Prior knowledge:
Number of strands: 5
Structural class: alpha+beta
Largest sheet: 5 strands, antiparallel
Radius of gyration: 12 Å
Mean pLDDT: 93
Distance between the termini: 19 Å
Amino acid sequence: MDKRLIDILCCPVSKRPLRPLTASERDQLNTAVKAGSVDTVAGEKVTELLTEGLITTDGQLVYRVDDGIPVMLPESGIGTTQLAGFAA
């Protein structure tokens, strides 16, 4: 993703800055998705693995990036508190 775009994006809920999800964070999240234990903020089960994502700088919320386009809908965010041992 273009760094200039990341620099101007922020979480639509908390207004915190975002950063790219690291490979280890993505892998940990995808492991939980495969196990069926991840829901969006709206309570919908996450079934698609993330190839790319953005996370708030406080590590609390993840937004997926599909085909280079950030999905910044508040209800589509993934809270990290539901992930045991998630280290952002």
